[in-house]
Amino acid sequence: MAPSHDSKNIARRALRIAQPGTPALYLFALQAEEVLQIADISRVSRDDAGKLIGYQRPQVRKHIQEIVEYLDTEAAVFPNPIILALSSSVRFQSSRGPGAADGLATSGLLSIPLPQSGKPKPAWIVDGQQRALALSRTQRQQFPVPVTAFVADSVGFQRDQFLRINNTRPLPRGLVTELLPEVDSPLPPRLAMRKAPSALCDVLNADKASPFYGLIKRASTNRQQAPNAVITDTVVVEMIQESLISPAGCLFPYRDVTRNETDFDGILQALCTYWSVVRETFPEAWGKPPTKSRLMHGAGIRAMGRLMDRVLGTVDPRLPEAPELISKHLAVVAPHCQWTGGRWDELNLRWNEIENVSRHVQELSNYLIRVYLNERAGIR
Questions:
Q1: pLDDT reported for residue 249
Q2: Spatial distance between the Cα atoms of 205 and 213, rounded to a whole number of angstroms
Q3: Series of mean pLDDT values for 10-residue runs along the chain (380 residues)
Q4: SS3 sequence of the chain
Q5: Model confidence pTM above 0.90
Q6: What is a single Pfam family found in this protein's UniProt entry (predicted)?
Q7: In whole angstroms, how far apart are CA 269 and each of 35, 210, 235, 276, 296?
Q8: What are phi and psi of 103, to 5 degrees?
């Protein structure tokens, strides 16, 4: 029987699989030209209020073209399904007869409404963005494509599935860290550990009282809307995470591991207090692109983060006089820093030779801490 397709709906024979506690899964097929006809690719961006929307990675043109060239061959095989999140507007009608269900799956007819003018499409691609784009460009537009779908109007649930499905793949780290605060369900330990630092990174970038306001680049960052964004979000997340999980970190005491609670307000106060003084101590290096200031570079942020653990181990950021005290502590290090020019003689590197690699981060951190420990005895 030929695929059913009228002006209002695409109807496909499908298997419905009910899994306990989750939306039912539907297994069916589409033609290549139909995938993007019914499904949107939801790329990560932010609305006017700064709220995260979408969840997909950017296009990779070369990879897409390679898929197109393969699909155009007669020997093409397409075994991996596109995974879709369907809106609740779809309908499934079970088949009749003794063979329609076997205890694991039910056969029937899935009806997917075609998008009308000015209306959103009834599906979103959770996995298979690049394959879907390639399918839309292949010469073989009737090529049959396997599809796995679930009904979910909630973008939060779609994001959760996107992260889980792509958990073992090389997703861009910035995309993962930006999505994590938006996922409410339990996460794998590796991802859960990064959720709180990513949420804090969000606040630091969005709060006008934060020294990092508008300076952090996330996967959704639009260069025209955020022209001042110069710091990669993964660097800020790593700086916060390292201080949070290390017993020697200044943010570690803000976690109550036994109750699984975190004092976010206290952490934000500590971060804003310290980094505001960093901004005041190095005004010529603050807010510039990493190519012009290594303070805004991954190595600079992480090294100053490790120095933060030492400084705030001595100064309580909750004290009214904390900014003045932190300023005195950073003043002993400032003359030895070469963020925008000159040479780090002790490291045998020019200022712009510092890279965000483990060896440079470690060497720069050790040097700043060593200078600080040697000089702080004179702080009054």
A1: 93
A2: 4
A3: 67 89 85 91 57 52 83 87 87 84 87 85 84 90 92 68 55 49 49 71 90 86 76 91 91 79 87 96 96 96 96 94 95 96 95 95 96 82
A4: CCCEECCCEEEEEEEEECCCCCCCEEEEEEEHHHHHHHEECCECEECCCCCEECCECCCCHHHHHHHHHHHCCCCCCCCCCEEEEECCCCEEEECCCCCCECCCCEEEEEEEECCCCCCCCCEEEEECHHHHHHHHHCCCCCCEEEEEEEECCCHHHHHHHHHHHCCCCCCCHHHHHHHHHHCCCCCCHHHHHHHHHHHHHHHHHHCCCCCCCCCEECCCCCCCCCCCCCEEHHHHHHHHHHHHHCCCCCCHHHEECCCCEECHHHHHHHHHHHHHHHHHHCCCCCCCCCCCCCCCCHHHHHHHHHHHHHHCCCCCCCCCCHHHHHHHHHHCCHHHCCCCCCEEHHHCEEHHHCCCCHHHHHHHHHHHHHHHHHHHHHCC
A5: no
A6: DndB
A7: 48, 9, 19, 10, 21
A8: 95, -20
Question: What are the structure tokens assigned to 376, written together?
Answer: 């702080």
